[in-house]
TrEMBL record:
One Pfam entry name: CRAL_TRIO
Domain CRAL-TRIO as annotated: residue spans: 103-276
Family matches, as InterPro entries: CRAL-TRIO_dom, CRAL-TRIO_dom_sf, CRAL/TRIO_N_dom_sf, PI/PC_transfer
PROSITE patterns referenced in this protein's UniProt entry, alphabetically: CRAL_TRIO
Origin species: Rotaria magnacalcarata
Gene3D superfamilies: CRAL-TRIO lipid binding domain
Top-level taxon in the UniProt lineage: Eukaryota
Name used for this protein in its record: CRAL-TRIO domain-containing protein
Amino acid sequence: MTTNSPLFDINQLSSEHQKIFHIVYDELKPHHTSYVQFKINLKLKTNLDIEDEDNEWRYEVHRYLRARKWHVTHTVKCILEMIQWRKDHRVDSILEEEETAVQVELLRKIVPNVYHGNTKDHLPLYIEKSGLVHVDKILNMFTPEGLIRCHIYILEYNCQLTRECSRKLGKHVETFAMISDLNGCKMDLRKVLHLYRQAIYIDEHFYPERLGHMLIVNPPFIFPILWNLVKHWLDPITQEKIIVIKKGHETAATLLHYIDPDNLPKEYGGSCNSCPTFPECIPIYDWSKDTAANDKPGS
């Protein structure tokens, strides 16, 4: 097999897991072949490399096996559901949808965020000022379907970044990391918790084993209330990947354990000085100057 990505090495698995992997891979082979043909027929701007696709598929099967505790029947069922979901929701062409890309840019104004280098483990790093979310603007400017489509777009972009990291480093990278800054978070966030629940369902069922770790900083006093509502929607393994950092000196020390200083904004204890908007690494949109938005109800 020739591919630009690091090859999946089944010999890294135990003999028992190798047997299970082959059972699942062989059972799904005709379905995957059909799915690849489906993607070819989409006539995407980026041509598919069949051997590269098969290599990535092996990693996908491995992720699902880990997530489904190496249960053959459950894994096959979940992967078949994932393939159908991707077809039904046009997921493989989403990064080429101009309308969705525009919506994602609008969402970036409502929920300030940025992709900011990598962690020490070479995971793509996404930073979001979740506490500054304009809840009413989300409800007024997006349909629930449109917002979920933006979420899928971001997930696909994250997966693309991990693939690029793998090729650059010459070793497999399949997860991404996130810093969620809850400073300023208010209880009106409860208005969109049903959308968070939908997003979590998509993460858990169609992108298993993709989250490396989520670092939550500046948790407000209402955080335990919100966390008690959300945590029940998360798989226990996912919960273990979420690290809540208390305010104070602990924030910088913990973040610097995972992220080199030059990949961390100064406001979190890093030394980044290369961002176009330096010293503000995460631009915050000034809605008071947006007359078009201010004309909308709830702005």
